[in-house]
Design goal:
Blueprint (H helix, E strand, L loop, with lengths): L4 E3 L11 H9 L1 E3 L2 H4 L12 E4 L9 E4 H11 L15 E8 L4 E2 L3 E7 L3 E2 L3 E7 L3 E2 L3 E7 L3 E2 L3 E8 L3 E12 L3 E5 L38 E2 L5 E2 L8 E6 L3 E3 L10 E8 L6 E3 L3 E2 L15 E8 L4 E9 L1
Parallel strand pairs: 5-7, 6-8, 7-9, 8-10, 9-11, 10-12, 11-13, 12-14, 13-14, 14-15, 16-18, 17-19, 18-20, 19-21, 22-24
Antiparallel strand pairs: 1-2, 3-4, 20-23, 23-24
């Protein structure tokens, strides 16, 4: 058996043991490491297991504490500048303020108030996070103030204020973006979207109502077909450019949804034989006389109108074949 104690006091065989010598025997004893290393190994450590601690406030009596208390108080009260962890660090649920700095990786933790430096969060949930250089790939972030963060697949359920960040693919309910670049943005609006402040700068694929722009591709209204009959309806909100193949004598009814200042075009072709076309009183013509439709199968007349919101003022270009 290995020696457990080093005794500085020795006794001669058959000698006399004094009281002072007995005190010296105890006071001068050092404990060898074998006292611990010779014990049987404990394969699993419970948080309730106890350790013997030398209390700095009590120099006479040693005291015990649990493994849980040891790590709770040591990590919460100490500062560790070069702490290296080889395994996965799980934060669990942090109810207070947590500062996660430099290169920490958070996989499944829930962090209520986090200040992120260069943190990478893969599946973490952040309720109130301030990110300065974080890369968050699959996290759920409810309220985020972002400066230079790059967020690739994040889901945002609260208000997002992005000032300089680049957001790749974003599904979001409340987004305020001042300088950020949004790569692919897809949203389904359940109500109306209103932009009340700020100046919109039109890019090459964006049309702005109150800005002069030069289009590099054609912009037009698809021609739609009206139904021939004795009374012919024309919904101007859906048929700004319309065609009519007239197969019977008919009358153009008062068009619906007229807009002040809008222009409308109607192409009328004789389908078979010669048919007549009368016009509602809200169609106005030069001199007050409506044009007579060109006779003959296949003949086409084109009518162009400008509206004042109540009437349509028209001119005719006729006899196309």
């Amino acid at each position: 058996m290995a020696i457990k104690f080093n005794r500085s006091q020795t006794f001669a065989t058959g000698g006399t043991v004094t009281s002072a010598a007995l005190h010296n025997l105890i006071d001068g004893t050092d404990i060898y490491p074998a006292l611990i290393t010779d014990q049987s190994n404990l394969a699993t450590i419970s948080t309730a297991d106890k350790l013997l601690i030398a209390d700095t406030d009590d120099t006479i009596n040693a005291k015990s504490t649990t493994v849980q208390n040891l790590f709770d108080q040591a990590f919460s009260g100490g500062t560790y500048t070069t702490l290296n962890l080889s395994g996965a660090l799980t934060f669990g649920t942090a109810t207070g303020n947590r500062t996660v700095s430099t290169t920490a990786t958070i996989t499944t933790g829930t962090i209520n108030n986090a200040t992120l430096g260069t943190t990478t969060g893969t599946a973490a949930t952040f309720t109130n996070a301030t990110a300065t250089g974080a890369n968050i790939t699959n996290g759920t972030i409810q309220t985020l103030t972002s400066s230079t963060a790059t967020i690739t697949v994040g889901t945002f359920s609260g208000a997002v204020n992005s000032t300089i960040g680049t957001i790749g693919t974003l599904n979001n309910t409340n987004l305020v973006s001042t300088t950020g670049t949004i790569g692919n943005f897809s949203t389904t609006l359940v109500g109306d979207m209103t932009i009340s402040q700020g100046t919109a700068t039109a890019g090459t694929r964006l049309a702005v109502l109150n800005t002069n722009q030069e289009y590099t591709r054609a912009h037009n209204f698809d021609a739609t077909t009206l139904t021939s009959g004795t009374s012919i309806a024309w919904n101007l909100s859906e048929n700004q450019v319309a065609r009519l193949a007239l197969s019977t004598n008919g009358t153009m009814a008062d068009p619906s949804n007229k807009v002040d200042g809008a222009t409308y075009i109607l192409s009328v072709t004789q389908s078979t034989g010669t048919n007549t076309l009368a016009w509602n009183a809200n169609f106005k013509w030069p001199g007050g006389t409506a044009p007579t439709l060109t006779a003959g199968s296949g003949k086409t007349d084109i009518f162009t109108f400008v509206s004042n919101g109540t009437s349509l003022f028209g001119v005719a270009s006729q006899n196309y074949s």
